[in-house]
Amino acid sequence: MVDHLRELVANISTDREKVKAVYQFLQSRTRYVNVALGIGGMQPVDAATVDRVGYGDCKAFSNYMKAMLRAIGIESRYTLVKGGQGEYGFIKDFSVSHFNHVILCVPLNNDTLWLECTRQTDPPGYLGDFTDNRYVLVIREDGGHLDKTPAYSMSQNLMKTRGDIRIDDRGNGNGELFYSTGGIFYTDIDRAARLGPEDQKKWIYSNYSFPNYTIGNYSVRAIVDENPVVEINLGVSLRSFANIAGPRLFVPLNAISSSWGVPPRERTRTQPLVLMFPAVYCDTLYFHLPSGYRPESSLPTSMIESEFGRYSASCSFDGNTLIYVRRLERYSGWFEPEKYNDYFRFFQNIARINSQSVAFVK
Question: Can you give the pLDDT at residue 102?
Answer without folding.
Answer: 94
